[in-house]
């Protein structure tokens, strides 16, 4: 980062065509991590793994939290895919979160130089258009983070695909009805990817919520009797993606960049790259270019 905040986004972000292979981590913020912890873990993501971004997951409703995210990202020299979290209760807290995020993006001078994307987690075309209008002066793209099935069960949701600036695809092949082991899941990945390529109007594609669980739980149950959840399969899934670097580089629309879900077991048990102890749970050294 420069010593002073720039006056313009001109030539600030890399060409999206260079954003393929490993992008960074999903990072769950329900803990409302301290500024010092955000700085430490964002810097580790950047320095140890070459992450370009952290993709926020969940929500912290503390006043000023996103200002801490911005400061930590600036310190770590990493970008942020921000998130408007809807939760699972069907309430309207997401509206307050949306309004607070927009206010911070406009008031913090570093915000637009850190925030690469704002994500919604439901297919709300009207909200995407409203967000694009609200943030137009900042030049921050808007997207919806969703699985292919989520679009398909709504008839393709063309209005949403028309509205978004990039495709944030959930890629969770463990839950497919024909899932078995991670190293045999490429056909599941490409099946969903092909749908996004055919319907996504050649927009940039990211695998946002993307991983393979190491354990099952009440909320993590397979839809195939052959699906295997263990640490080896969690690692094998990322090894599989890493082996497809050249393919991801050449996907039309500017290639495919993928995030690892999720940074730590502290944040979501069963998906973390790190154990709660702070030690790596799996071998993880993904390529960021090829």
TrEMBL record:
<dbReference type="InterPro" id="IPR017853">
    <property type="entry name" value="GH"/>
</dbReference>
<keyword id="KW-0472">Membrane</keyword>
<comment type="function">
    <text>Glucanases play a role in cell expansion during growth, in cell-cell fusion during mating, and in spore release during sporulation. This enzyme may be involved in beta-glucan degradation. Active on laminarin and lichenan.</text>
</comment>
<keyword id="KW-0961">Cell wall biogenesis/degradation</keyword>
<keyword id="KW-0624">Polysaccharide degradation</keyword>
<dbReference type="GO" id="GO:0009986">
    <property type="term" value="C:cell surface"/>
</dbReference>
<keyword id="KW-0119">Carbohydrate metabolism</keyword>
<dbReference type="GO" id="GO:0009277">
    <property type="term" value="C:fungal-type cell wall"/>
</dbReference>
<dbReference type="GO" id="GO:0071555">
    <property type="term" value="P:cell wall organization"/>
</dbReference>
<keyword id="KW-1003">Cell membrane</keyword>
<keyword id="KW-0378">Hydrolase</keyword>
<dbReference type="GO" id="GO:0042973">
    <property type="term" value="F:glucan endo-1,3-beta-D-glucosidase activity"/>
</dbReference>
<dbReference type="GO" id="GO:0005576">
    <property type="term" value="C:extracellular region"/>
</dbReference>
<dbReference type="InterPro" id="IPR050732">
    <property type="entry name" value="Beta-glucan_modifiers"/>
</dbReference>
<dbReference type="GO" id="GO:0000272">
    <property type="term" value="P:polysaccharide catabolic process"/>
</dbReference>
<keyword id="KW-0325">Glycoprotein</keyword>
<comment type="similarity">
    <text>Belongs to the glycosyl hydrolase 17 family.</text>
</comment>
<dbReference type="GO" id="GO:0005886">
    <property type="term" value="C:plasma membrane"/>
</dbReference>
<protein>
    <recommendedName>
        <fullName>glucan endo-1,3-beta-D-glucosidase</fullName>
        <ecNumber>3.2.1.39</ecNumber>
    </recommendedName>
</protein>
């Amino acid at each position: 980062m420069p010593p002073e905040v720039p006056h313009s986004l001109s030539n600030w972000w890399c060409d999206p065509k260079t954003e393929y292979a490993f992008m960074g981590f999903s990072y769950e913020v329900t803990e409302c991590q301290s500024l010092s912890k955000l700085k430490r873990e964002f810097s580790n993501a950047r320095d140890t793994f070459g992450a370009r971004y952290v993709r926020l997951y969940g929500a912290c409703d503390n006043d000023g939290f996103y200002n801490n995210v911005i400061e930590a990202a600036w310190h770590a020299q990493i970008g942020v895919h921000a998130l408007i979290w809807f939760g699972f209760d069907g309430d309207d807290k997401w509206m307050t979160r949306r309004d607070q995020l927009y206010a911070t993006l406009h008031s913090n001078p570093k915000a637009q130089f850190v925030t690469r994307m704002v994500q919604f987690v439901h297919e709300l075309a009207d909200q995407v258009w409203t967000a694009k209008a609200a943030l137009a002066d900042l030049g921050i793209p808007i997207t919806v983070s969703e699985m292919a099935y989520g679009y398909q069960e709504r008839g393709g949701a063309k209005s949403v695909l028309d509205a978004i600036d990039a495709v944030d695809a959930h890629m969770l092949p463990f839950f497919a009805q024909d899932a078995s082991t991670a190293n045999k899941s490429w056909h599941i990945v490409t099946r969903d990817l092909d749908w996004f390529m055919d319907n996504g109007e050649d927009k940039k594609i990211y695998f946002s919520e993307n991983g393979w669980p190491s354990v099952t739980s009440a909320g993590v149950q397979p839809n195939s009797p052959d699906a295997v959840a263990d640490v080896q399969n969690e690692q094998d899934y990322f090894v599989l993606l890493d082996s497809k670097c050249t393919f991801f580089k050449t996907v039309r629309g500017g290639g495919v960049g993928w995030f690892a879900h999720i940074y730590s077991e502290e944040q979501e048990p069963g998906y973390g790259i790190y154990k709660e102890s702070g030690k790596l749970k799996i071998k993880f050294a993904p390529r960021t270019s090829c």
